[in-house]
């Protein structure tokens, strides 16, 4: 106590600002314009007027040195404004922090209500302090140290800052929820609230309510920082030293995740909701799903076995009335009923109408739902490797179709809908048509087998097109042979100003064709050993490869020594320009990253298997993944490996230092390549996307190991999620991230036989299979950073045998 007083005394000697108010001293008066400042100058507390209002409020805001735009995060008297500057904040004789105005003898306008069990001696030992977390705390000094009597974090306004909680504490009877302001000028309690519904029978859900009605429902699935135990249940934002982010419920009901951009002195919205029609709770009514991608038509669609309740409404594109069972007279109870899958949806609302049963397989879950006639749907959910069963007993509300994420729902339908669903899957079960269909199928099968055999035979002997096929390809309107002069004009004579980049195979320029089409023009370095006919042939072959995750080859130009390729133009450049850029990386949220990972995987799979030419890319890296206008990934340079001859490629890549980090050990050291070396490179790309770090970048904490080594170490220590990019601010799907990291580790295993094929990778990423445990990856340890410059690494640094890892538990 004495020491503390002494410290406080000393502090006052050196700092004109203070962070504490004690009993019967040091009042904070509005007329004095004084503020409390937390120790490290993170937050300030004082009187202010919001917007154009002249009313006075006591609030906490980020101090100017941290956040230059005044951002009030908490308000004491939000519903009791003071109409002049007579406000005084002080500890009163009951040991409460209280706000007085107009007349000091009156009852306080606002107080902390911490007066329980006041004793005279006790009051003396109370003080209020503004902490560096932004929390205003009433303490009582005691023999056992300081006791928290009250804290502002327990009474959020409209903003959640790191360290605050939003949820419930049953033990202390606290309800941490956000309430919007009335308007930008009035911080009084507005219409909207963000709070949790603990929903003990099923799963907790977070909602934005407008009054008592549901306005927006947070996507189910655990948030990364969701905590639930016997006493409390809450979400929270973690402290980050390098980024300040907050959650805010605006007066319009918009729930925002904001990130402070210090360079531009403004808050940047990471995401917000509800924004699109499908976001609003119940936009499509009951028993229907909302498809955001369907916006040009009508976004609402009844789930199988249901039809619009109001056909009129449906015709007007108003889905609010939702859908009802198709045939009320056909019972769905022990009458041949069954389940039809609705793929990849946001779980229907579980409040009051659902039940969660833990440790129950999908099959048991189906039976559980089937045996209770009021069960309308079920979903099998795997959490932490345990299958759980979620069943619904009423109308299904607020379903949204996701393309990437989402879970499969099984809806109970009557026998007629069940038969319809099966038919639409292409299996005619009727006896009458069975025989002709079977005969046709067998014939078809024979034809397919024959053609596959023929094709294979053909492919064995050649990998190129015959003259006729080549002619056909050339006639194909999408492949063009360009005139050199056209391309010189398009690129302003290959000027540096138009140069987009340079790689092992040559330089790429931005160009505009006479028809104003923007294209990327790749001028190959003059080392191709191919003759003109071979080159043409090769280009024609590659131009035939078409996949949404491959950059499209539009044509080529051959003149003298010049070999030029004309490609689709990608406005957003390459993935690395986002991933490793401090400001642009925040544009890639988790959803987008997961889509990119899946897109790249599908593109590589197409090259390896789906296309008729097996192509091994051999130079997969983030700078060869381009992003289109929607930030969807497209692999570039995929035909290069064929255009250039084998060993020469290796020679090329040696000079590109950045590529080193992506090469598999057998390729880097022995020059051996296979589809499995592409799988290795894909694994690196995947881990880079998840972590936002370069594999060959340096690490402050672990400078002796690279990214793979770092991921592996965390994996062994069972805390691998620490690698997830901190710029995602913990907003990501836990299970997806974990799955991605595990797949990444499987891809970078030392022995190529252990690495999965690309088809397996795509399947694993879909989450429809359990994953094997990865073995220790290649290149875990690096003796010095100089290796980065030398792709031909001495043996000891890629085989990690010289170092032992203890505690290599398989997960
Ligand atoms: C401010 O409010 C008090 C209490 O309601 C009232 O007595 C006083 O007249 C008001 N003053 C002004 C300037 O409106
Ligand atoms: C203080 O607590 C009492 C009893 O719990 C409650 O009625 C009152 O509204 C509270 N006052 C404030 C300002 O929160
Ligand atoms: C102080 O701590 C002791 C031992 O933990 C406990 O018995 C006692 O009740 C505490 N006193 C106060 C005032 O909290
Ligand atoms: C069916 O489930 C509902 C909801 O859980 C329950 O109230 C009802 O008793 C169950 N019926 C039977 C027959 O088990």
Automatic annotation (TrEMBL):
Residues 494-779 form the Protein kinase domain. CDD domains: B_lectin, PAN_AP_plant, STKc_IRAK. Residues 1-17 form the signal peptide. The lineage of its organism: Eukaryota, Viridiplantae, Streptophyta, Embryophyta, Tracheophyta. Residues 21-151 form the Bulb-type lectin domain. Its main location: membrane. GO terms for molecular function: ATP binding; carbohydrate binding; protein serine kinase activity; protein serine/threonine kinase activity. Residues 333-414 form the Apple domain. PROSITE patterns: BULB_LECTIN, PAN, PROTEIN_KINASE_ATP, PROTEIN_KINASE_DOM, PROTEIN_KINASE_ST. One of its GO terms (biological process) is recognition of pollen. It comes from the Eukaryota. It is found in: Cell membrane. Keywords: ATP-binding, Cell membrane, Disulfide bond, EGF-like domain, Glycoprotein, Kinase, Lectin, Membrane, Nucleotide-binding, Receptor, Serine/threonine-protein kinase, Signal, Transferase, Transmembrane, Transmembrane helix. It catalyses: L-threonyl-[protein] + ATP = O-phospho-L-threonyl-[protein] + ADP + H(+); L-seryl-[protein] + ATP = O-phospho-L-seryl-[protein] + ADP + H(+). ATP binds at residue 522. GO terms for cellular component: plasma membrane. The chain crosses the membrane at residues 433-455. It is a single-pass type I membrane protein. Belongs to the protein kinase superfamily. Ser/Thr protein kinase family. It comes from Rosa chinensis. This is Receptor-like serine/threonine-protein kinase. SMART domains: B_lectin, PAN_AP, S_TKc.
């Amino acid at each position: 106590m004495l020491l503390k007083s002494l410290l406080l005394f000393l502090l006052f000697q050196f700092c004109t600002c203070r962070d504490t108010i004690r009993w019967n001293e040091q009042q904070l008066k509005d007329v004095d314009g004084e503020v409390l400042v937390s120790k490290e100058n993170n937050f300030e507390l004082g009187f202010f007027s919001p917007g154009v209002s002249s009313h006075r409020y006591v609030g906490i805001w980020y101090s100017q040195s941290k956040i230059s735009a005044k951002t009030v995060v908490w308000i004491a008297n939000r519903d009791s404004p003071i109409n002049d500057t007579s406000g005084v904040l002080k500890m009163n004789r009951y040991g409460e922090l209280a706000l007085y105005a107009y007349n000091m003898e009156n009852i306080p306008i606002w107080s902390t209500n911490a007066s329980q069990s006041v004793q005279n001696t006790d009051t003396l030992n109370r003080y209020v302090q503004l902490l560096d977390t932004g929390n205003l705390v009433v303490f009582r000094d005691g023999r056992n140290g300081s006791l928290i009597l009250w804290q502002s974090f327990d009474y959020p306004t409209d903003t959640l800052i790191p360290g605050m909680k939003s949820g419930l504490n049953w033990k202390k009877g606290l309800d941490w929820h956000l309430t919007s302001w009335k308007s930008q000028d009035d911080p009084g309690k507005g219409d909207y609230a963000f709070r949790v519904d603990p929903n003990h029978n099923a799963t907790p859900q977070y909602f934005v309510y407008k009054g008592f009605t549901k306005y927006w429902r947070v996507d189910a699935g655990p948030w990364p920082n969701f905590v639930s135990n016997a006493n409390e249940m809450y979400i929270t934002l973690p402290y980050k030293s390098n980024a300040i982010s907050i959650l805010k419920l605006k007066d319009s009901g918009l729930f925002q995740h904001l990130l402070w951009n210090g360079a531009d002195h403004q808050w940047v919205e990471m995401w917000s909701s509800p924004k699109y029609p499908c976001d609003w709770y119940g936009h499509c009514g009951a028993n229907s799903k909302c498809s955001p991608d369907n916006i040009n038509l009508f976004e609402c669609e009844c789930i199988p076995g249901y039809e619009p309740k109001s056909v009129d409404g449906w015709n007007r594109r108003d889905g609010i009335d939702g859908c009802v069972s198709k045939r009320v007279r056909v019972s769905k109870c022990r009458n041949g009923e069954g389940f039809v899958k609705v793929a990849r949806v946001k779980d229907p609302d579980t409040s009051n109408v659902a039940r969660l049963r833990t440790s129950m397989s999908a099959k048991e879950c189906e039976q559980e739902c089937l045996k209770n006639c009021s069960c309308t749907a079920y979903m099998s959910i795997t959490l932490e490797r345990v299958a759980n069963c979620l069943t619904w007993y009423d109308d299904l509300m607020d379903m949204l179709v996701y393309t990437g994420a989402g879970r499969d729902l099984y809806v109970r339908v009557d026998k007629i809908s069940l038969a319809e669903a099966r038919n639409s899957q292409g299996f005619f079960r009727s006896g009458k048509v069975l025989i002709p269909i079977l005969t046709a199928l067998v014939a078809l099968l024979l034809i397919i087998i024959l053609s596959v055999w023929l094709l294979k035979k053909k492919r064995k002997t050649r990998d190129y097109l015959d003259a006729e096929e080549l002619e056909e390809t050339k006639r194909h309107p999408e492949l063009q042979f360009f005139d050199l002069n056209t391309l010189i004009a398009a690129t302003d004579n290959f000027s540096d100003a138009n140069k987009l980049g340079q790689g092992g195979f040559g330089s790429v320029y931005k160009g505009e064709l006479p028809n104003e089409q923007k294209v990327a023009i790749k001028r190959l370095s003059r080392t191709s050993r191919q003759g003109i006919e071979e080159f043409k042939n090769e280009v024609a072959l590659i131009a035939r490869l078409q996949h949404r995750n491959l950059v499209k080859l539009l044509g080529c130009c051959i003149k003298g020594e010049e070999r030029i390729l004309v490609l689709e133009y990608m406005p957003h450049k390459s993935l690395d320009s986002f991933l490793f850029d401090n400001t642009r990386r925040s544009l890639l949220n988790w959803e987008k990253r997961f889509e990119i990972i899946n897109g790249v995987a599908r593109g590589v799979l197409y090259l390896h298997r789906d296309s008729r030419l097996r192509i091994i890319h051999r130079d997969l890296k983030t700078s060869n993944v381009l992003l289109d206008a929607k930030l969807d990934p497209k692999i570039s340079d995929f035909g290069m490996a064929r255009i250039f001859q084998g060993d020469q490629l290796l020679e090329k890549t040696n000079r590109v230092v950045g590529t080193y980090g992506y090469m598999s050990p057998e390729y880097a050291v022995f020059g051996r390549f296979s589809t499995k070396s592409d799988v290795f490179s894909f694994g690196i790309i995947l881990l880079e996307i998840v972590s936002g770090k370069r594999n060959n970048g340096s690490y402050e904490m672990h400078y002796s190991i690279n990214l793979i080594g770092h991921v592996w170490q965390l994996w062994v220590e069972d805390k691998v999620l620490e690698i997830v990019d901190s710029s995602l601010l913990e907003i990501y799907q836990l299970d997806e991230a974990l799955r991605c990291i595990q797949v990444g580790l499987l891809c970078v295993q030392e022995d190529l036989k252990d690495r999965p094929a690309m088809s397996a990778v795509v399947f694993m990423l879909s989450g429809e299979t359990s994953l094997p445990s990865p073995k220790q990856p290649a290149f875990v340890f690096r003796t010095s950073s100089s290796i980065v410059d030398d792709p031909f690494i001495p043996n000891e640094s890629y085989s990690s045998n010289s170092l032992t890892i203890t505690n290599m538990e398989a997960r």
